[in-house]
Fold:
Amino acid sequence: MDLPTPRGPLTETLFGALRSGDDFFAVLTALPDADPGDSALALWVLHQLHYRDFTGVPDDLEWDAQLLRLRGLLERDLEQRLRSRFTAPTGLGFVADFFDWVAEHDGASIAAHVHRDATREQVLELTRMRSIYHLMETDPTAWVVPRLGVRAKAGLMELLYDEYGAGDPNRLHHHLYARGMEASGLDASYGAYIDEVPLEVLEQNNAQSLFGLNRRLRGAALGHLAAFEATSSLPSSRMVQGLERLGFPREYVDYYAEHVEADAVHEQVAVHVICGGLLADEPQLEGDLWFGAFTALDLEDRVARSVLARWESQEAVA
Ligand SMILES: [Fe+2]
Ligand SMILES: [Fe+2]
Structure:
């Protein structure tokens, strides 16, 4: 993938240094001048070094000490911001009360809009925006596997086996999304649309890599997974109906159709086996399970509110 277009002084300096392979100290000095969009893109690129390569950037920079220092500073800011938005629920048990807690959450829904009202152009825009996550679906959670006890690990592997196609590359979820994009006339190469994604989408992706790459945040990673799975099945069926209403190709509809049934199973495995297994081994992580779950719902709300507000104002102008 090519490096994205810089969004400010930090990414300008960082991308120049990544290409030349030196002078990362100058990048650290650019940090105080970075606005949220600039910082979020810098962190997204630093995380990507752990997943895939950038054209013209040496592979060994993945473990460069100064870049890791920069990543750590950006992650600290992100984690502080996420934690400042979170209030732990009182008197609730994660496994016993999780689904009721999710049901009480009343966030903005892009899927409901796609179901009934969205235009074809809006769905194409959404598809490009979501591709930043869906073309690597589940990869951030895979980092967590070696950090778990036997029950949670077995449960997570059961879920990941399904996400990764159960041995069939044609059923691998991020490949299903790529086929849906191609059939819809879009570029399915990873990161092709990074320049057009808003801050909220970058933050949503950065939070998942933050939780996945840091062992101390394994509770947050699994809480995030549980909330993600528990809020997928119904929206996926709305997406199926919306895509059919607009005449999108079968390949794209299939991606969401797969998630209607799969995630109705995954949410049970995630809460009872994976999170329940983690709590049996490490009960002190219950607060982080809630933190991760809240963050998943909160960040999706922020994405939905920003996208829906923008579409509403465009429609008002039109
Ligand atoms: Fe999936
Ligand atoms: Fe799933």
About this structure: Residues 156 and 274 are 6 Å apart (CA to CA). DSSP finds 15 helices and no strands in the chain.
